[in-house]
Write a structure and sequence with these properties.
heterodimer; A: alpha/beta; 4-stranded parallel sheet; B: alpha/beta
């Protein structure tokens, strides 16, 4: 009876009220995957609205001695990989006849992507965001409002992504008949982890073709930052069946795979930062998109199976990489992928593929103030 | 007689409060084992959970609280919590230790029918539940069905959900089990209205608020609910 499992992880740990909506979503998702018209519409939007395929850039100065290839999701419309998923899910929402979209956001990149697709499709949009994140990601709050979204501050607990996600789920619980919950990462109850992974798999599919074109071979490592883990699972999905080491990089204070234990949060069983009683702990990271005590269930499965390796880097290491990358490559990365950049030098690999999941304009005020 | 269920959050005063609730006429007491991220709960119970956790009410302390309540009252006691606590403690061990401490069943707000079927518990159904899911929940539930009256979180509302009547009639067509209605019921008038439809009612958020004023206030509040539901139309069952 239990559905949507990745080994011992995943599932559907939600109040009964949401189960019929998740069943309906799973049916719509299955039908959409088989529907050529759906795939054509999404492909068209990704090409003409989002700007896919994104380029693969060889970084020549940041990592001396390595051939570091960057999958440039920072060049996607709205400045991060989040739009891949938001476009795919908004098409599912319209197929389900929903007029209102509810979402959570941490760094604001997912919130901006959702506000963008809601503007594009003429849908009402409510984005829940922690008050602390609203403070440190001010430009994204202004973007969402300009795009017509209502940004709902969450003013309890950590006032970051964990509480924003809880409030988004509570909003959906109360409005499930009219609202679609557009989750931003490969977390949550089945079928969300699978949906988000499939919509982000375009990253890995493109990158695999591009690096074969550029190098005539597969990379010796593929690396990405992991908060909930959507850009990483998108990249990894292109290489799961290859002999390519996969490396996920967490923030030291939010390392739910490196330091976590099995637990249940936001609808799924996964690896969490939790105490011995199952109470979820607060995460701490300078990168709001990584500042989350949970992670997608498929990552927990990939960790346990040994197919992917997960490491963590500190705020200071990420900040150093952020500054050095900007001054050596002429690209200002988001603080989130700066964590992956910080680990590149430690990789035992010469040809490295890294998902540059977003651009860093949003982080400037915070970095200058750090 | 219609059944009256009162929810209290585990804490130092809970044994005394539970005794007051039973004196006021509660037939069953739900004991909240607090969780850091209670998705099904509105602000009142969420804040009560935050306070309880800050006061050290972890699983072990909650089981001790349950045992202490058991010493004071005779009515059935049912812990209500979230899956993460059972995950950490061990599902079977949690169920066994709760029973040993005096629980007659469990309610796990984020374990819908079908997940972890080995854990015997009271199942919740909602206005959004399909008939298929109502039947599944009825088949797996422990003694009675918890009817979530509304689409949303726990907490007081201005009126009884208009969805309750439809949910009751659908459930009646599928099962002979007692149906207790909860979520959004806080006043005696609402208790009466819901009890006219269901076999019992559950009062949570308002009871938690009144409990902050002490056992006497809680006893009087519960007595006002008791009086209201005793005036309701007779139960179909018993």
């Amino acid at each position: 009876m239990t559905v949507g499992l990745y080994g011992a992880y995943g599932g559907r740990y939600v109040p009964e009220t949401l189960v019929p909506a998740l069943d309906e979503l799973a049916d719509a998702w299955a039908a959409a995957q088989k529907d050529e018209a759906f795939r054509a519409e999404l492909g068209g939007l990704l090409a003409t609205y989002a700007g896919r395929p994104t380029p693969l850039t060889l970084a020549e100065r940041f990592a001396p001695g390595k051939r570091l290839y960057l999958k440039r999701e920072d060049l996607l419309h709205t400045g991060a990989h989040k739009l891949n998923n938001a476009l795919g899910q908004v098409l599912l929402a319209t197929r389900l006849g929903k007029q209102r979209i509810v979402a959570e956001t941490g760094a604001g990149q997912h919130g901006v992507a959702v506000a963008t697709v809601c503007a594009r499709f003429g849908l009402e949009c409510a984005v829940h965001m922690g008050a602390e994140d609203m403070r440190r990601q001010r430009p994204n709050v202004e973007r969402m409002r300009l795009l017509g979204a209502e940004v709902k501050p969450v003013e309890f607990g950590t006032q970051t992504l964990k509480e924003a996600t809880s409030e988004a789920v509570r909003d959906w619980l109360a409005t499930v008949e009219s609202s679609y919950y557009l989750i931003g990462s490969c977390v949550g109850p089945h079928p969300y982890p699978e949906i988000v992974r499939e919509f982000q798999s375009v990253i890995g599919t493109e990158a695999r073709e591009q690096i074969l074109e550029a190098e005539g071979r597969l990379p010796e490592a593929a690396i990405a930052c992991v908060g909930g883990g959507s850009n990483a699972i998108g990249l990894f999905s292109g290489f799961l069946d290859d002999d390519v080491p996969l490396v996920g990089v967490e923030a030291e204070g939010a390392a739910s795979l490196v330091n976590g234990r099995p637990g249940v949060l936001h609808g799924a069983r996964s690896s969490l930062l939790a105490d011995e009683d199952g109470q979820v702990l607060d995460a701490h990271s300078s990168a709001p998109g990584l500042d989350y005590p949970g992670v997608g269930p498929e990552h927990a499965f990939l960790r346990d199976s040994g197919r992917a390796e997960y490491v963590s880097v500190s705020d200071a290491e990420a900040l150093d990489a952020f500054r050095r990358f900007a001054s050596t490559e002429g690209i200002i990365p988001a603080l989130e992928p700066a964590h992956a950049l910080a680990h590149v030098a430690k990789l035992d690999a010469d040809v490295v593929l890294l998902c540059l999941s977003g651009r860093g304009d949003k982080d400037l005020a915070e970095v200058v103030g750090l | 007689m219609k059944r009256l269920v009162v929810y209290l959050m585990c804490g130092a005063e809970t044994p005394e409060l539970a005794e007051a609730a039973v004196e006021g006429g509660a037939d069953l007491v739900e004991l909240g084992f607090p969780f850091s991220d209670p998705l099904a709960d509105g602000p009142v119970i969420r804040r009560a959970a935050e306070r309880a956790l800050a006061a050290g009410m972890r699983t072990g302390a909650c089981l001790e609280c349950l045992a202490a309540v058991r010493e004071r009252v005779e009515v059935p006691l049912v812990p209500m919590t979230y899956a993460s606590l059972l995950e950490a403690y061990g599902y079977e061990r949690f169920a066994a230790d709760a029973e040993a401490a005096g629980a007659s069943s469990l309610i796990v707000a984020d374990l819908p029918a079908g997940e972890r079927p080995e854990i015997r518990r009271v199942q919740l159904v909602a206005p959004t539940s399909t008939d298929e899911r109502l039947s599944l929940a009825a088949e797996h539930t422990d003694g009675w069905l918890y009817l979530v009256t509304l689409t949303g979180t726990t907490g007081a509302r201005d009126r009884v959900s208009p969805d309750l009547a439809g949910l009751v009639s659908r459930a009646r067509a599928l099962t002979d089990l007692p149906l207790y209605a909860g979520f959004g019921i806080s006043t005696p008038a609402q208790a009466r209205e819901a009890a006219d439809l269901a076999d019992g009612i559950v009062v949570g958020s308002r009871a938690v608020e009144v409990a902050e004023e002490g056992p006497l206030a809680l006893r009087d509040y519960v007595a006002s609910l008791r009086g209201a539901i005793d005036a309701a139309v007779p139960a179909i069952i018993d």
